[in-house]
Design brief:
It is a single chain. The protein is an alpha/beta fold. The protein folds into three domains: 126 residues, Rossmann fold; 127 residues, no CATH class; 194 residues, no CATH class. Helix content is 49%, strand content 13%. It has 17 helices and twelve strands. It has a four-stranded parallel beta sheet with strand order 4-3-5-6, with helices on both faces. β5, α8 and β6 form a beta-alpha-beta unit. The longest helix has 33 residues. About 5% of the residues have low confidence.
């Protein structure tokens, strides 16, 4: 029998170099000593996390037994509490597929387990060591939690790094249905997720002739075994009959079935399984975003005021440097487009010469960022001053926008504030960026800023608009510092 993979469009030959995410990756052939099957690597990773959690429990007790005059009952108490914490974390899925296979740390589940264990630790201490204070009881638990998180974070970072090099990948067969292309494109742009697409088959609902049709249960099982497939992923509108064929064909192979629901710009936190028909099947419940606008407004203005006060000495020093470096005012004001298309005056530290607007057309004609169809950027813009290059590189020039945040024209987190000339070129998708206030920082800043293409910029801002909320804002805030220090895309 001929494998359907032989008819797949652009199958991945073993042992070649693949370019993904801008980096060349060497993909060793199956027979190469460099190739490690995913099930083998997964067992190693599970052992790493398992032993790491146990070490996190035992190490503080071992150190205390050697260095501190702890009583045996106190050592026993610390061991029981630590063991209970990791056991709860494991039962909550901290060793599950979505943690190990997807290179996640499982930090949330371990932290939740520690929070559940804390009151148990206090109650148990009353029985074993009643003379200890609450702080003395919880310190060992905090040490165990910290060590567990450190080990898990190290493991997840290691696996993601190896995946960008072409290691630790799951050989993936794609079953194509109508509408699969956008999902497939996004999947290819994130190699750290660990899916190595080795071939395609077409579902019965797909009219494309580029890939062979999905075969019978026996053919599907034989193909998955011979090609050493780790994951079968359905994309687009795959029919229920095809899904039944896949599930039956996968029964004895050890491969996993992953069904992409076709939702775009919906983070996993907004989806949950919903059992129906007495548990005989399930649906995906998607929570609609309900941003607490008043709470966000209060937080933005309060935090913006605090940050403006804290950064005022730095702003004053930077303003003096701008004035000494070149003639003209320290601050630059420009009309931008805010929420619902309302114009406002944006404040920045001046990083260009005073005649920059008049010279813009000449600089544009000379060539800027050719990869971005709407936004103009130039790495070697001659209008930028010496001090301007530094404050752009460190994003200090953006700090006066805290004034706009305090005035309610901007948010701390949101899409990039757009120029009226840019908005005039927006299509319907891009105009969705105007549904929320522009931000001092956002996904565009933590993802590369000026290095991004226009399509990527729109996609990131659309993702923020569709999923905005306190959790996403907090994540962007934490990533902003890394982006500013790295300076990637800042020019």
């Amino acid at each position: 029998m001929t494998s359907p993979l032989s008819a797949a469009p652009t199958p991945q030959p073993a042992g070649q170099r693949e370019r993904s995410g801008g980096k060349a990756r060497f993909l060793p052939p199956l027979e190469s000593p460099l190739f490690t099957a995913w099930p083998t690597m997964r067992q190693d990773l599970l052992s790493w996390v398992f032993l790491g959690d146990l070490t996190a429990v035992v190490l503080p007790i071992w150190v205390a037994a050697i260095c501190l005059p702890w009583e045996p009952l106190r050592l026993l108490h610390a061991f029981i509490v630590g063991a209970l914490m990791v056991a709860i974390a494991w039962m909550a899925g901290a060793l599950g597929v979505d943690v190990v296979d997807q290179a996640r740390s499982g930090a949330g589940r371990v932290t939740l387990a520690a929070a559940v264990t804390a009151p148990v630790a206090l109650l148990l201490a009353q029985l074993l060591t009643p003379q200890l204070s609450a702080l003395s009881v919880l310190v060992p638990l905090c040490a165990q939690l910290t060590l567990s998180l450190l080990g898990r974070y190290t493991e997840s970072r290691w696996l993601r790094a190896r995946r960008t090099e072409g290691r630790g990948l799951r050989r993936t067969l794609i079953v194509m249905g109508p509408g699969a292309e956008p999902i497939l494109r996004d999947l290819r742009s994130h190699p750290a997720d660990g899916f190595l697409i080795v071939g395609y088959v077409s579902s019965s609902t797909n009219r494309s002739h580029a890939a062979a049709r999905l075969g019978s249960v026996e053919e599907t099982s034989a193909m998955i075994t011979s090609e050493r497939i780790d994951v079968v992923m359905t994309l687009g509108g795959v029919s229920p009959d095809d899904l039944v064929t896949l599930m039956r064909g996968l029964t004895s192979t050890g491969a996993r079935l992953v069904v992409a629901p076709g939702l775009q710009d919906v983070v996993p936190g907004r989806m949950r399984g919903l059992p129906v028909t007495h548990g005989w099947t399930g649906l995906i419940d998607v929570s609609l975003r309900r941003t607490r606008l008043l709470a966000k407004e209060i937080f933005d203005r309060t935090a913006g005021t605090v940050l403006l006060v804290l950064f005022s000495p730095l702003l004053a020093a930077a303003a003096i440097a701008v004035r000494l470096d070149s003639p003209g005012p320290a601050f630059y004001r420009q009309t931008r487009v805010g929420q619902d298309g309302a114009p406002f005056t944006l404040w920045k530290l001046r990083s260009m010469r005073t005649d920059s607007d008049a010279r813009r057309e000449a600089v544009v004609k000379a060539g800027g960022d050719a990869g971005n169809e709407v936004l103009f950027k130039n790495r070697t813009d001659p209008r930028i001053t010496r001090v301007g290059r530094f404050i752009r590189r460190t994003s200090i020039d953006e700090l006066p926008q805290l004034i706009n945040v305090v005035r309610g024209e901007m948010s701390l987190v949101g899409p990039r504030p757009a120029l009226p000339s840019e908005v005039a070129e927006y299509d319907a998708e891009a105009r969705r960026r105007l549904l929320v206030k522009p931000g001092l920082t956002g996904l565009w800043q933590v993802s590369g800023r000026s290095d991004l293409s226009w399509d990527t910029t729109v996609a990131l801002d659309r993702h923020y608009v569709e999923n905005r909320g306190a959790r996403l804002d907090a994540s962007i805030f934490l990533s902003t510092f890394k982006a500013v220090v790295g300076g990637k895309g800042a020019y």
